[in-house]
Amino acid sequence: MTHAELWERHKAVMPAWLALYYEEPIEIVQGSGRRVTDGEGNTYLDFFAGILTNAIGYDIAEISDAVREQLSSGIAHTSTVYLIRKQIELAEQIAELSGIPNAKVFFANSGTEANETALLLATQNRRSNQVLAMRNSYHGRAFGTVAITGNRGWSASSLSPVNVQYVQGAYRYRSPFRDLPDAEYIKVCVDDLRNVIETTTAGDVACMIAEPIQGVGGFSSPPDGLYAAFKEVLDEYGILFISDEVQTGWGRTGDHFWGIQAHGVVPDAMTFAKGLGNGFAIGGVVARGDLMDSVKANSLSTFGGNPISTSAAKATIDYLLDKDLQANAAKRGAQLVDGLRGISDEFPELGDVRGKGLMLAAELVKPDDNTPDAAATAKLQQETKNRGLLVGKGGLYGNVLRMAPPMTLTEDEAAEALEIIRDSFNTLR
């Protein structure tokens, strides 16, 4: 069956809002290392990794073996009403890695579920439904997480179970304060935060939730230290701080294991998902013990933290720690940033290069007035695919190429990707 035939079947039974990449969508049927092969036999270097989910790469023996061992027991699922050894072992490891005092962990199936859980904990703990979120943010597709998403392209409904106010600072490239030095930029954003709390809320806000690097928003981030300055204000009001580490966790940013550590902050809770399972569905929350225990009613997660996913996740964390993939993310990220900035010197259409580690973005603009150029972005994404490289797309205006390859990326593969990207930019002329 061709991709075109499969696409017709997809359109007949799948929602129209379930977007697909490329003029002619592809099916990925095989993978090894950092490369994947589609249903028509074309092979690509994968620089988006299932939206940052295949963090280690494809066909990793240590992870596959861990899953096979669990399957060989005959137990794929028991639910959280029973003890699950791998779940406990994984929770112990994440609690220690988090740096959060007296941490406890709850497992779900995705980042959306993780953020919904964090909202439940914070609003219950503070007895308030008021939430602060960042402009240009994305936190999931469920009722509560859509409500705290500060990006109109992903806000499917104006209805909301929470009262949300949005704060400046996370998307610097198009901020009205973009030209200020870091310290002044942080100051005006802190002033904005305080003003938002004092003028648009009742004061008893439950929490602020923020992505250290915004994912769907185009891998944008503020200067290091902004969230430390924010937390000083939040602490004055007793407002909890939640770091959404769904995309930034597990060493991907290179310099730190968690994205929020770049700001020198220990949050009250962190949410996680994506790369933890290297393709297996798992997400969760790690939080202060007293905050986690705020929920007094019974609750559970039928599939969250199941034996298969937690076996895969435990093997994934062990692999990335044993191989020091955080250090590799820093090295290969620096190589890619240097190369992308070299391309930006040649092509004024590349308005901004940003990100950390192996979480990088290229924002495309019209050179004459610096306005977003979504058409050029779509063309470049298609051209890189035609040359054997898969990259993501995002940003508030759909004009950002997102690059997040597996953290096992090699120096030669990074050089190969840069060459393809440069060749693709030549098609804009």
UniProtKB/TrEMBL annotation:
Entry annotated with the keyword Iron: no
Transferase recorded as keyword: yes
This enzyme's EC code(s): 2.6.1.44
Keywords from the named record: Aminotransferase, Pyridoxal phosphate, Transferase
GO molecular function, one term: transaminase activity
Domain of life of the source: Bacteria
CDD domains referenced in this protein's UniProt entry, alphabetically: OAT_like
Pfam families per the UniProt record, alphabetical: Aminotran_3
Cofactor(s), names only, from the UniProt record: pyridoxal 5'-phosphate
Subunit structure as annotated in this protein's UniProt entry: Homotetramer.
Protein family membership: Belongs to the class-III pyridoxal-phosphate-dependent aminotransferase family.
Record-given protein name: alanine--glyoxylate transaminase
The organism's taxonomic lineage, starting at the top: Bacteria, Bacillati, Actinomycetota, Actinomycetes, Propionibacteriales
